[in-house]
Amino acid sequence: MSQPADHSSDEIQDRLWQQAVQVAVLLAIDPGALGGVRVRAAAGPVRDSWLNLLRSLMSPSRWVRMPVSITDERLLGGLDLSATLATGRPVLQHGLLVEADGGTLILTMAERLPTSTAARLTQVMDEGAVVLERDGLAERRATRFAVVALDEGLSEEESLSPALRDRLAFELDLRAISPRRVNDTDMQHMMAGLVDEIVAARARCADIAVPEPMLKVLCGTALALGVDSMRASIMALAVARASAALDGNDTATDEDARIAASLVLGPRATRMPPAPESEAQDEEDPEPPAEQQQDAAPPPDENQDDQKDHDTPPPDPGETKPMEDRVLDAAKAAIPAGLLSQLLAGSLQQRAISGKSGATVKGGQRGRPAGSRRAQPAHGSRLHLIDTLRAAAPWQKIRKAALGPEAQQRVQVRSDDFHIARIKQKTATTTLFVVDASGSSALHRLAEAKGAVELLLADCYVRRDQVALIAFRGKVAELLLPPTRSLVRAKRSLSGLPGGGGTPLATAIDTAASVAEGLRRRGQSPVVVLLTDGRANVARDGTGGRERAQAEATQAARQLSALQVPLLFIDTSPKPQQEAAQLAGAMRARYIPLPHAGAAAVSMAVRAATRNGAG
Predict the structure, then answer these.
(1) Domains of the chain
(2) DSSP string, 564-612
(3) Parallel, antiparallel, or unpaired for β 466-473 and 429-436?
(4) What residues have CB less than 8 Å from 40, skipping those under 6 apart?
(5) Is 338 left (phi over 0), alpha (psi -120 to 50) or beta?
(6) With a threshold of 0.70, does the pTM exceed it?
(7) ω before 482 within 30° of 0 (cis)?
(8) Is the Cβ–Cβ distance between 152 and 47 less than 8 Å?
(9) Least confident of 449-453, 468-472, 580-584
């Protein structure tokens, strides 16, 4: 027997596709003010159908694809080396961003776009021009384009640059749409009338008036949702204008504001808006009994009630709300699913780092090329031939003038033209766990630490990171697990981890600082994760006394903060303690109270800390 169709799923997919079509129409009306759209979807028929729709609506503008590995010369423009050497004078070659003027720039694999390339792209988008001052050239070329960032990341760890996302009005997620819900034939009939409407809407978009209360409502909605960037409110205003222009209105309406809030502000939400005051008052002040209501109310007039029933239609509950409530409701409906879990994981709107998460080291002999700089080749550095020729090319006509006919056939290069290649590489990260193994609940905390270490070790084979473990109890702190990637060795070392005794917290912090400093000297990037309740009761010399031990722990925490390594303080006490929070503040660590932290929760917090710098 065939399975019944899931009509609710089909309705959701149809609604998502209608929203995608709406985004394409609005972007085609005012691409310059809206910036562009981030499209989360893998390569496939759904994404291709949407791109074809957008290209048809924005026709006859340019359609330029930008590879993720593009060079600065191809992106911004620069010296045309072959033409310059042939003519003896500087010849400018325009970049891809100038070629995209008035059209659409397609970013393929946008989640892998380097930070430097994203910074240059956003600068051009802000200034509306490419400013070129290099290789003896100086030029400013105006350019305006819309950006379609194709994000193929499989998780939040692979995400678009936050700076670029902030400049794109829309975010689309096409991953949940099945190809069978997309009908290209229906779209062709629909586009036949849409193109003419879009052309007319472009002409009147700049003249659309926006009431002052609507401006306040859009800004207030952004604040309620935790959208701090002013660009979001400005782009929401542009969406309201484009929607009004599409409907043929001269003034933006409440419906246009709701569309703008749902498409621009809702997907950017970083917190849930507070509950309305009326709902809170209803919960605090219940309605009086029915007898009191009848006594307080005057007797109704039956004739008046009959007259009202015939003359006045029943009110629409949605229309009785103020405009700010209706706009906020529309934005709340567009809040991305799983917002609260993303906030708890600390991964919202954070740029993840693919591959190794260590610090960047420049000037090494191995790694990826990172441009060049003017210098003499020495100490194993490599000559950058292309940039050396590019520096010498503008001076060829002058240098050959004083030479004989034979020398004029050669390219004249001087020592001042030499450029050496710049190399950068990522150092390996070592996550150093410092675990409190004292007290009666040590077995529970140690089990959490063991599980977290084993979970993180599973990623070490891919990320090329290492894990180390320091346990402290009684009077000493001991490095039980030196930095390793071996899962077998880690399990063997963790299985015999002892527990019980006092809490020598100052000694443990000193040991962590010593190990972290040694790792840094060996060219690694340490991340310190401290799991404790923050209650020290053993001083550095092994004597008891809570007050002295706590003071020494605070002093050691300040010394550890001077190393400027990423720090994560996990409070493992049953309830968050003031001592732990103060100690985390002294070491400038990211404080996470996790009284019931399981291995998976600790592992998730550590991954977020290593990606975002731990504070």
Answers:
(1) 7-71+97-183 (3.40.50.300), 203-272+334-341 (1.10.8.80), 360-426 (no CATH), 429-612 (3.40.50.410)
(2) ---EEEEE-SSS--HHHHHHHHHTTPEEEE-TT--HHHHHHHHHHHHHH
(3) parallel
(4) 151, 153, 171, 172, 173, 174, 175
(5) left
(6) no
(7) no
(8) no
(9) 449-453
